[in-house]
Amino acid sequence: QVQLVESGGGLVQAGGSLRLSCAASGRTFSITATGWFRQAPGKEREFVATVSWSGGSTYYTDSVKGRFTISRDNAKNTVYLQMNSLKPEDTAVYYCAAGRTASTTSINPGSYNYWGQGTQVTVSS
């Protein structure tokens, strides 16, 4: 019903920046919130940030506050994650997710109904 495609990942040195994009298509009118998650090898999927459909509400996990910014452009049906001051511990596959009933306080992956394929972010020291 909803398709999500991430892009923008890559290799960057510590202290550098990347901007991830998540393009949504299909029944996007049903989405109430979109979140970014990440998963490092051998680790569980971890919440990163959320934004409401309107873009008026955001929430971040403590480890990325002040460094990452989530935003959305409804005209393009695209959600962005601007990542600055990247650290090696940010290395992971990043996934965008959309929920029909999720809010900006929904940090559990089970709160989201649709997932992208993931994009690799690697931060070297």
Describe this structure in words.
With 125 residues, the protein is mainly beta. It has strands spanning 2-7, 10-13, 18-26, 33-39, 46-52, 58-60, 68-73, 78-83, 92-99, 114-115, 119-124. The strands form two sheets. Strands 2, 4, 5, 6, 9, 10 and 11 form a seven-stranded mixed sheet that branches. A four-stranded antiparallel sheet has the order 1-3-8-7, with no helix packed on it.
Beta-strand proportion: over 45%
Rg from alpha-carbon coordinates: 13 Å
SS-derived structural category: mainly beta
Largest sheet: 7 strands, mixed
| Helix and strand element order | EEEEEEEEEEE
Low-confidence sequence ranges: none
Distance between the termini: 40 Å
**Number of strand elements:** 11
Work out the helix count: 0
Helical amount? under 10%
| Rounded mean pLDDT score | 95
Shape: globular
List the helices and strands and how they pair.
Layout: E1 2-7, E2 10-13, E3 18-26, E4 33-39, E5 46-52, E6 58-60, E7 68-73, E8 78-83, E9 92-99, E10 114-115, E11 119-124
Parallel strand pairs: 2-11
Antiparallel strand pairs: 1-3, 3-8, 4-5, 4-9, 5-6, 7-8, 9-10, 9-11
Outline of the structure:
This protein has no helices and 11 strands. With 125 residues, it is mostly beta strands.
List keywords for this structure.
four-stranded antiparallel sheet, seven-stranded mixed sheet, 125 residues, mainly beta, globular
